[in-house]
Amino acid sequence: MFDEKENRQDVSPTLQGALYIKGALDFKQILDSHTLPVDKMRGTIPLDMHQFERLFTTTRNPHKSQDTLTYLTPANYVVVLSNNQIFALDVYHENNPAKPLSTRDLQQQLERIKEESSRRTAEFRGLSALTADDRDEWARWKEELVKLSPRNAENFSVIDKALFVLSLDEEAPADSDAAGKLCLAGNAGNRWLDKIVNFIVFRNGRGGLIGEHTPIDAPTAGMMADHMTRFIEKNRAALLAAPSAGSSLPAPRKLTWQVSTHVEAAVHKALDSYNKLASDVDYRILLFKSYGADWLKDKAKLSPDAYVQVAMQLTYYRLTGTGTSLPLFLFTQCPPRKEPRRMRREPHDNTTMAGPKPSDLSRRSR
Asked: Least CB-packed of 163, 193, 207, 352 within 10 Å?
């Protein structure tokens, strides 16, 4: 999440969304100019920076039995979801990355999207809930949608080429716990979970992101989020003062779909399944101040991530009394856990998975 302050004033969601876009585009400009400082492990060991290229215009595509990742040349627009409808929003004047839209321009365009998405029409909504379904099911219905209409195939291409996704949600979470749960398990009809980065802004201006973990380590997206926060705080006055082009901007493009009754039924089924899972999610933020990552690394000589993983396994054992037949906390009976292993010390390496083999895990991606 981007804003964890409890005593905060509500902010316009379209303004906040515009600021998110400006912050992300600034980070992209740094990547494009190859001026991002090299990330280092413990301040000394340089890490491969190849993963940062996968933050933008990367998509996880569903296929039977095994998904694929596509890395496309970045387009000059983002995808915006509002009221379970999908829009393509140009973020540069004349498709020129040297001419980004101002904050007020982006806010105006997001207002147009919210207004258009609030109209009552007969168009089918919520297709994106399929991206939260079982991956084999999503692969099946995506193939069916492509066969139904060339327009559907073009829509998928538009989404795949987008820089990232921004969701404008109607909920107004009162605190960080509620906002965090909605980021993790909010409205599936207003997400596109195949994209690597999906920013979320709520009606009261709180926000965060949900990401597809497969092609990148979490710190990669975290560095972008940290940069966005600092950029917005440092440049807020200038960002708000930049002039607007006014009504001369072309309207965002709405993506409409041709669906069958079978596809509609599949969307409703996916939503039901997702909502049952989401209702079982508890989310709390715990601020632990006794010690942190620096103490664990410098004094205890432990990996903070490994320390937390072992603590979670120990907690499970203490709660259930099972899983400690082997020494040194090798809890073989605990539920299988997916744990990303950072491999950025090797050039151009991908995120690899430590833990149970894939066949042991549910093929749900969320």
From this structure: 352
